[in-house]
Amino acid sequence: MNDDVRNIVLGVVAAGISAALGWVARTYLWKRKLRKKQAFFGLPDNSESVLVVNRDAGSTDLAVHRYDVFALLELSALIKDCGAHAEVITQDTARQGFGERTEFCVGGPGSNRRMAAHMHAMLPGVRVNTDPEPGPDRLAFQIGSERYRMEKGLSEYVLLARLTAGQPGLNRPVFLFSGQTAITNQAATRYLARNHERLSRKYGNNTFVLLLKVVNSQAYGPDVAELIADVTRAAQAPLPAPTAPRNSHRAS
User: Fold this and answer.
1) d(CA 31, CA 87)
2) How far is residue 25's CA from residue 121's CA, in Å, rounded to a whole number?
3) Rounded distance between C-alpha atoms, residue 224 and residue 242, angstroms
4) Residues 105, 118 contacting (CB under 8 angstroms)
């Protein structure tokens, strides 16, 4: 074997080793990223999760609003990416305990009794005006001493929460998407899908409650959602004594 052939063979071998090492490194990083995602969502390989869907508050039938259907589709994609499985159940048939399976609960407390139960039990500092009568405070959020009013199609709010039981054996989280309108529910699921890596780095596998504002949904749909505040502490503390809230937030 002359020098030229030897050099070619060595070059091919070196290229093969380099490609193999690159593949191993990429596979390791991909698996590491997947494990972090699975831990954040509480969805190890082949695990089970549940999607709790609300009813369309504007329909007399037991229908699901199309934006809530879109929200479920986005969540289903996240679950599939984690290698897990999902069961879809309606809000009036959800009977499982807290932390047994990862749960994604979609819809405000006025249209989803499961959401109402979660908020009552774990977010005592949050109140949602579910009075069907029209008025400036209809569907308004009160979080601590702050009130957040809706201007439909222009400025709408949604709570995105990751809650854990903190008990041995009950470590699967519950994700809440509680919006003032169906389109805000989808906006919250989209925000989670886009930002779960950043949220995982910031909060780890701990509880958080975020308030988002969906801007000009009549023009931009669910795509423009702004983080207004981390309201975890206020949401988990008891509401202050009943007085007029200090501030009312409206679109500027």
Assistant:
1) 25
2) 45
3) 33
4) yes
The pLDDT value given to residue 158: 97
Instruction: Write out the H or E segment, with its range, that includes residue 36.
Output: helix 3-41
pLDDT surpasses 90 at 12: no
Length reported for the chain: 252
At residue 183's C-alpha, the angle toward residues 69 and 177, to 5°, is: 75
How far are the Cα atoms of 67, 90, 109, 218 from residue 223, in angstroms, in the given order?
12, 26, 23, 11
Q: Which residues contact 218 (CB under 8 A, 6 or more apart)?
A: 153, 154
Do residues 63 and 55 touch, judged by C-beta distance below 8 A?
Answer: yes
Provide, rounded to the nearest whole percent, the portion of the chain with pLDDT above 70: 77
Task: List Cα–Cα distances, 124 to 63, 97, 202, 242, in angstroms.
Answer: 29, 19, 24, 13
- Which two structure tokens, joined as six digits, stand for 106? 């979609």
